[in-house]
Design a protein that fits this description.
Length: about 425
Amino acid sequence: MAAQSDSPVVDARTARRITAAGCVGIFAELYDNGIFGFMAATLATVFFPDSQNAVLLVFIGYAVSFFFRPLGGIICGQLGDRIGRQRMLVFVILLISVATAAIGVLPSYAAIGVAAPILLLLLRVLQGFSVGGEAAGAMTFLAEHAPEGKRGLYTSFAQIASFLSLLTGTLIAAAMTSGLGAQRMHDFGWRIPFLLAVPLGLTGIYIRRRINDTPRFTRLKEEGGLSANPLKEAFSSPEHRRAMLLALFIPLMNGSGYYVLFTFMPTFMSKNLTFGTVSGLLVTASSLVAISVAIPFMGKLSDRIGRKKVLLGAAAAMIVAGIPCYALIATGSVGLAILGACVMAVIFAGHTGVIHVLLVELFPTRVRYSAYGLGYNISSALFGGTAPLLMTYLIAETHNVYVPAFYAVLTALGTLIAVSRVQDRAHIPLRDA
């Protein structure tokens, strides 16, 4: 089948609804996933009270869930390419909302013993499966609706939602820790952020059920052009195999950005530096504001000059600035730490605000959800979800607080090399086949 190159025409009202549907799900998914990292110190006391490595065990649970992301990407991607993006986006937000709310009602270790951390791990697995189906699905959904020349801007809105969700989680964790104190947080306060998944999930499901599937998928379905086995088709093509390999390595910088700079940072600052819990959360919150402001500018810039230039610039800047910025954080001064974290956040915006639209553009509509989801989720599992665990272990072994800085530089170098191998398709219409 010949590739279709004409762009979908989306009126302003529909564009707002589509963007809201994509973003609200991303917000709910990433809030549900991120709150686990923010509450790591408290969860350690609730579920591993007798262990000297309690925080490490919590981050093992955090990491394990990421290895179920590729499974979620495979199953949800296959179904999303065969029965539609919209149906799968409703399913994944329902699944993670139930799993997150269930964590909020789990009995503690003191109540049921070892069964408590086992149940916690199982619910983290469900969260990981769900997020594996969300990222590729939501970004594909937004990009396939976006007019030509605005794909970078449209998909960047979902990334803003993801970081605003982390900001929300950070502020909630900071406010509750400050207001309730350690003992009451241990007794009952830790449950509240997880139970907020219920209203978030219901809102996301309501909005996503009221939207139609993408014009590109709908047209392909009407023409009988859908793939019977999208992932098999992707693996049978040398072009798609190469693209999936790129989708594995281009997100390397995501591991040091999203999962170290933001998710792991509050725990790192309170456990390994001289910051109090609330001070660490304040630094993280400031950097989340900075990246949320910077992302749409990076997305729009990539529409003008191309994805490749923006990503290469961000990776090169992180290689240069990563260690100096961590040096500012390691001073122990809240003001200098905010400066260092915010500089890194703005640099990282050039990666996270552009990476997903670049990955969307690597694949045609017939296999996009499946192939993009598999490559990206394997990368997240290997280099993202394991990052807090790896940082915790290496810092304990080396007693070197600059380990996260070295990780930032190495992953940025990997991204720079991978992006240099990409054909920039920013100014080329999406392919359907």
